[in-house]
Design a protein that fits this description.
This protein is of the alpha/beta class. The strands form five sheets. The chain has a seven-stranded mixed β-sheet. The chain has a five-stranded parallel β-sheet with strand order 12-2-1-13-19, covered by helices on one side. A three-stranded antiparallel β-sheet has the order 5-11-6. Strand 7 and strand 8 form a beta hairpin. The protein is globular. The protein binds flavin-adenine dinucleotide and uridine-5'-diphosphate.
């Protein structure tokens, strides 16, 4: 088959764009990925005990975007799942996002009553406030609480995760886990919170299952011998790598995942336990069966150890949102602009943006509407 489009990367961004082109433009598409599987970082498969695990760390789906929900719902059924996280702070287990139950667990009844009253007066009930905003409070009780949370929940976790001071990061990073004024203990509050019933990889198989789509795995972009034969190339890999790092490397954070199987049905009370303290090297531990509702006499958990990215050693998981990296990104964007008729750069690594799965899908759908259709 002669293909009109080459899509580099079979993750969310690449798969969504491939499907849209195949279906709505009726054009042949070749999708390549250098890994030996589809689904990008959302890849899941059964481990030796038959437990469905996420190879590249736990992936929990949530979205407010109807177009994303409707698109993916054509390819999977869903199991409703609301993610809950407990964090170990001062040797106690508290809900994260930090909420009223966290206050009641950590402080005396008298102190907790006063703190909750001041929070409610300042913000109202059932409101989410980013930690950095809460720290600006003029109210002594609120300010003291905010400083406590920053020190015990955010500072060490953030240092471990990014190896940076929190203020070096875009404030949006810490805002992802705001303080909850109230008792809501869900990690996300999106309208749709669910896991694909048969897993992510099955859903990707459905997305890519179209007569106009061919997938070639274990294939690098630089191994493609005839890139000029395609009408257009859509590249979802790291943008700095594409340009041979000519302006220097864009930094990424990587993670080492440690999978541990236990001969017991459940090990944790909730999907994820966070470990903000420096006494632990890992940031969090997730038990997959909480996410998937799978029945199995054993259970598998995944510990996450953040580390620097090194192209020879590990994979680029997280773009690092700092001012300095934004400046470097602009240089690569300027290069991309010069060749935009032939090649488009789309996705978490190509846009160098900290996208969740739904944002990667939305980016793919929007790119198709604006640039292809
Ligand atoms: P990717 O999934 O990275 O896919 C890009 C693909 O391109 C890869 O498969 C790669 O092998 C391939 N590729 C790159 N360069 C080349 C090349 N030169 N040649 C050939 N192939 C190439 N999001 C959520 O919404 N909820 C979560 O709970 C969540 N948890 C996460 C946990 C971790 C540890 C990580 C790292 C991410 C998490 N995410 C989560 C984010 C989610 O993984 C991304 O939003 C999504 O994977 C982005 O899709 P993508 O297609 O842009 O990129
Ligand atoms: N964070 C933190 N303590 C926590 C949870 C999160 O300091 O207990 C900070 C940390 O900087 C983290 C960011 O908030 O990188 C975003 O957290 P999220 O859980 O959204 O990260 P992701 O799931 O994308 O790794």
């Amino acid at each position: 088959m002669k293909y009109s489009y080459l899509i580099v990367g079979a993750g969310f961004t690449g798969a969504v764009i491939a499907r849209e082109i195949a279906e709505k433009c009726n054009q042949p598409v070749l999708v390549i990925d250098r890994r030996n599987h589809i689904s990008g970082n959302a890849f899941d498969h059964n481990d030796n005990s038959g437990i469905l695990i996420h190879e590249y760390g736990p992936h929990i789906f949530h979205t407010n975007a109807p177009q994303v929900w409707n698109f993916l719902s054509k390819f999977t059924e869903w199991i409703p799942y609301e993610h809950r996280v407990l964090g170990q702070v001062d040797k106690k287990l508290i809900p994260i996002p930090f909420n009223f139950t966290s206050i009641e667990t950590l402080f005396s009844t008298k102190e907790a009553t006063i703190i909750k009253k001041h929070l409610l007066e300042e913000h109202g009930n059932n409101v989410k406030v980013p930690i950095l905003n809460l720290m600006e409070s003029k109210n002594r009780f609120v300010k003291e609480l905010a400083d406590y949370i920053y020190k015990n929940v955010f500072y060490n976790y953030t240092k471990k995760m990014w190896d940076l001071e929190p203020q070096e990061l875009d404030p949006q990073v810490l805002s992802r886990v705001p303080i909850q004024i109230g008792y809501d203990d869900r990690y996300f509050n999106d309208k749709h919170q669910a896991m694909p019933k048969e897993g992510y990889t099955k859903m990707f198989q459905q997305i890519l299952n179209h007569p106009n789509i061919e997938v070639k795995l274990s294939t690098q972009f630089k191994d493609v011998s005839n890139p000029n034969e395609f009408k257009k190339i859509i590249y979802t890999g790291p943008i700095d790598e594409f340009f041979d790092y000519r302006h220097g490397e864009l930094p990424y954070r990587s993670i080492q995942f440690e999978f541990i199987t236990h001969d017991t049905e459940y090990k944790q009370k909730v999907g994820t336990m966070n470990f903000p303290g420096f006494e632990f090297k890992h940031t969090r531990m997730t038990e997959f069966k909480h996410l998937t509702f799978q029945k199995n006499p054993k259970t598998t958990l995944c510990r996450e150890y953040p580390e620097a990215y090194n192209s020879k050693k590990n994979l680029p998981y997280y773009p690092i949102p700092t001012q300095e990296n934004k400046v470097l990104l602009q240089k690569y964007r300027a290069e991309a602009e010069k060749i935009k008729e032939r090649i488009a750069f789309v996705g978490r690594l190509a846009d160098y943006q900290y996208f969740n799965m739904d944002q990667a899908v939305a980016r793919g759908l929007q790119f198709f509407q604006k640039e292809i259709l």
